[in-house]
Structures are given as C-alpha cells and as structure tokens.
Amino acid sequence: MRVIYELVRRLRYWRHSDQLNKELQDELEFHIAMSEERNREKGFVPSEARRQACVSLGNTARLREEARAAWVWPWLESVAQDARYALRSLRRRPGFAAAVVASLAMGIGANTAVFTIIQGLLLKDLPVKEPRQLSVLDYSVRVNRPLYQFGGSGRKDTATGRFRNNVFSNVTFEALRDQASDVAEVLAFSHLRGTTIATADTSSVGSAFVVSGNFYQVLGVRPMIGRFIGPSDDMPNAEPAAVISYGLWRRSFGGRATALGSRVKINGTPATVIGVTPPEFTGVSRGGWIGAPDVTLPIHCQAVVSGNWTFNKPGASPTALYSDPQVYWLQLIARIRPEVDLAAAQEKLRMLFAQAESAAGTVWRDPQDVPKLGFAPGNRGVESLGRKFAEPLTILMGVVAIILLIACANVANLMLARASARRREVAFRLALGASRARLVRQFLVESAVLACLGAAFGFILAYPAVPALLNTLATQSDGIAVQPVPDMAVLRFTLAVLTVTVFIVGLAPALMGTRVNPGSDARIVSAPGLLRTRFERQPVRGMLVVAQVALSLVLLAGAGLFIRTLANLKSSHLGFRPEGLVVFSISPPKAGYNKEQAPLVFDRVTEALRQTAGVTSVSFAAD
User: Fold this and answer.
1) Fewer Cβ atoms within 10 Å of its own Cβ: the N or the C terminal residue of the chain?
2) In whole angstroms, what is the distance from residue 332 CA to residue 342 CA?
3) pTM of this prediction exceeds 0.85
4) Longest dimension (CA), the chain
5) Rounded Cα distance, 129 and 122, in Å
6) Contact, 482 vs 282, CB < 8 A?
7) pLDDT one-digit tens code per residue, 335-365
8) What is the mean pLDDT of the segment spanning 53-71?
9) Measured between alpha carbons, how far is 468 from 477 in angstroms, rounded to an integer?
C-alpha cells in the first residue's frame, strides 16, 4: 500500500511540476532575501550582501535537483524530456515518422487482430459463474462398440489408443445427478441442429438445446427478463417451456417484455416463452458445431420436438430416450463443489458411472473393455471450436509474426540510416560530457515513441480486421457465438509486443548510433562524395536487409502456394456445373410428418419449385 501511495504522490507532483518549480524558486529567493537583509544590517554594501547571501545558501541548481528528486523520480523526468525531444524531432521529419509508424501499425495491428480472435474463441472462459469449477464429462472404451446414440462426437485418443465419446444415457445422467449431489452438480444438454423456430411474425432455422431442469442453476446465469427452465419444467407431462436468446428476442420480438408468455413453435411444436438469456450468454460453447442456442427447452421435449425420431436401436420407441440405459444422447457437465477435494469428487463420479454401466446389462469379457469416465476442464465449455481453429490460427499467428519481424527489420534499417545522419550531433554531445549510456537511452526512448504511435494505430486497425478475418476463416456452419473484440488481455498482449518491438528496432541503432569518435566525427561536414566512415561499414544493416528479404520470400512462397491451391480447387472437375446451383435441406419429421408422408412432402416442394420463375430444373435426394 505504501508503494502505491508513493507512486501516486510522485505522479501528482510530476503533473504539477511547473507550479512546484515556481514555489521552490520563490522559497529560494525568500531565503536569499532574508540572508541579504541580515548582511546589510551587519554593514555590507548591497552588492556584497547579496553575494554573501548566495554563497551561504550554496548551489541553488543542486538544491533544485534535490528537491525535484524528492518530488518525482529523476529518471522519469529525464525520460519525459527525451520523449518531448523525440516528438519535436519527428515533427521536423514527418515523412520518416509516417513510414515508421505505418510499418509498425501494420505489423502490430495484424498480431493484435489474430490474438483477439485466439483470445475470444480459444482462451477466454465462458461467461458463467466460476467457470473453472466446471468439468466436461466423457468416457473411453478400448473397442469402439456400436452405440445406440445420436448427437455428440467420438474420436480415438492417440495417446492411449482408446476411443472417447461424450454422450451418455438419460438413466446415467439421473444417477450421477441424484447420487453425486454431495460432491458435484451435474447438468445435461443435447443439441438440436437445423431447428425450425417460428413466432407469430417470423420463421427461421436456428439452433436449439434441450437442457436439464438444473442447467441454468448449475451454470449460475441470471435471466435478462423472466425466468429460466427449472426442475418442474423438466417433467414428462409438463407444458413445453422455452427460453429464448437475447438475439432472437431482439429479432423476433423487438426486445419487448411482452415476449414473455408468447408462443413459439419449435419444429411445429408450440412452447411458451418464459425467459430471455443475457446478451453475453453463449451456452456451453463459444461456437462450433454446438453453437449458441437460440432456444432452450426441457429435456422431456426432445421426443416431441425431434418429430418422434427413432434412432438406430431396433424396436425402440421415442420414450426410450428417457428410460433405456443403452441409448446415448446427452452431454454432461459437472460443477465440482468448491469445498470438496477434486480427486475425491472425480473418484465418486467414476464409481457411480461404473455402477450405471453395470446396471445397463452390458457384459464385459475383459476388464479393459469397461468404459472409464474422464474429465476435461470446462471453463471454456465444449471445445468444438478449439479442435477446428487451433491449427489454422496457430499458422496465422506465425504468419503475422513474420510480418511484424519484416516491419521491425524495415524500421531498424530506417533508424540506422537516421542514426548515421546524426553522428555529428552524437559526437558533439559526447564531447560536451554526455555519457554513451545516456545517449543510448535517448535513442531507445525515440524508438519507444515511434513504437507507441504504431501500436496505438495498430490497436485501432485491429477492430475492423477481426470481423474480416473471422469471415475468411469461418463458414456459416461454424456457428461462432461471439464476435471477439480487443479487451484488457489483448491490450496486455499489445503492450508485450510493443516492448519487444522497441528493443528489436531500437537497440541496434542505439548502440551503433552512439559508437562515434567525438574528436573526428564532430568535424565531419556533410558533402557529396564523402568517404564512408567506420559506422557506415558495419554489417548490421546488410544483415537486416538479408533478413527482410528472406522473410518476405517465405511469405511470398506461402502466398503463392495458397493461390495455386485455390486455383486448383476452382479448376477441379466436380462432375456437374456448379453455376447457379442452390442446395438446401428440409426435414419432414421435424415438421410433424411421418415416414410415409415424407415422399409426398418432397414431391410437393419439388413441384412448387419447378413453377417458380427463374428455376430451370429441380431434383432431390433423400437418405
């Protein structure tokens, strides 16, 4: 606390330094005047009385420096002087300043934009209560046995050789939720893709979730208006209740509170709107194949909303979703209670999962075949985006880092050329008593001023660059739920890049620019045909040019390969002409049609499209 107080005090003094200097000068004059008055009373003539008063007071310049050292740090005042000198110098050379600032702005801005996307999509926690207490549940098996499932994802773990899956049966979920409540709160959800959402005025295809009655309670999210789905809503005979997203509320209901109690149709099934999620809520993922939910419904609405869809278990009815322990379709997230040991909570959940698997009636010939419950950090939710974008974003980060290095090499060359032109100035300063360390610091401060200007413009350029990069990287199916914007974490990253940039572009010019001979270089007069000095024969500038050309060739080669790949993709033969072709899908079961009625629906849609102006031909394929 004392350090903070001292910092604030000195900064306040620095801000009012002119007033303090005037007060100090008045005080010194007062002491001199009093001493001069006493000397006159002793019989000194006026001139001698003042001289003796000044002698008795001592070196006033030293006193001023000591007083200023008590007010502000001398090094801070010196750096401020160097910064003011740098700004005056740059005003005299606007072309040089513009070239340096533009180069650094492009390099730093590109890095800031890419890091903003990485921070927003891959590194940022979910906007829920205590996200680091969340764990995403999955399980692993040695043999990828056939599952009666839909939704979720399965993949092979290359480290263990076991297959991992992230969907569970409703029976298993209820066992974990009810029997592990002393160590964890377990929620469940499932994603309904391509859901038709119809209100009184609009109809669109969006993303819908079915969630357990404790979904929002476990996440710790508060409704924008209304209330969230609770345990009483997640009952077999309960009236279908819907929680809509902030975006859907604004688009379809104009942001009016009268949306509460309205009816929406989800795949033709009516439900009552009971609440609206806050604008920052993105569900259990920041995007990807899960996406952000436009609508959430209770789990027991799944069978009705999905059009009584029967999955791949022979003879199963839609109610098997809730009662059959061998039907896997729910994803689970657990919030470990803070007062419980993490290892103990995980062990109990593993035990309950094993018991639920045994109760399902599955017989395992080998103990190694028994599914094993696994845990993944849930602070960033279900990492569907991470798996897709981690590699391209890493490559893109490397590309923009090379761009920054090229910009730094370019700026360092400009700074070296400028330092060469200033060698007479440096020689005179050294001859007048300035230390080389003091001049190196001044050069670094000038580099820091230029880098700060470049970073400021780069930070501003990052704002429009982020959505442009997202549109390039992502497709509509990626369902990115957030639009990343630069925040404090991005600002800290920019400051770190700025610090590194200052040393890259400023250190070599500072060291070489102060390596002069005060005796000989002070007598140099600029003239045509001037012999090259030892400074100009330094190999650093040549090395920087070589590095700049080499890095540029790397980028050009990569860009050429990318363009060649795009050209090959455009010229490849697809087996049909894609010009003017429109592809879309419909799901008759989700609209309430059974399997016998589905062909009639396709026939009617096909006939209606054939009669549409501008349509030359229509065909369809059904799976």
Assistant:
1) C
2) 17
3) no
4) 126
5) 18
6) yes
7) 999 999 999 999 999 999 988 887 776 656 5
8) 67
9) 17
